[in-house]
Amino acid sequence: MLQDTSLQAFSEILPHLGARQKQVLKAIYVLGACCNQRIADYLNWPINYVCGRVKELRDKGLVVEAGRAKNRFGRAVHLWRVSEFKETFF
Questions:
Q1: Lowest CB count within 10 Å: 27, 38, 60, 86, which one?
Q2: pLDDT at residue 12 is higher than 80
Q3: What angle do CA 8, 32, 44 make, to 5 degrees?
């Protein structure tokens, strides 16, 4: 779990992100390698709120693919993690 100092540093270092982008990035950091549905479940959001934010974070280089897995329906899904370079911000 993130410590208060890490959350404060995160908020100060990445002010250019929107509120939902920050929440998704924090969720990925806390959960580790995870798929969009796991992020949506964790945040208690609809999946469509998460997919766009993950893409935006990928485009900014803050999130990278961590592999692939099968979801509860047997479909292949991408797993995401915080970029190694960006992990130093937490």
A1: 60
A2: no
A3: 75
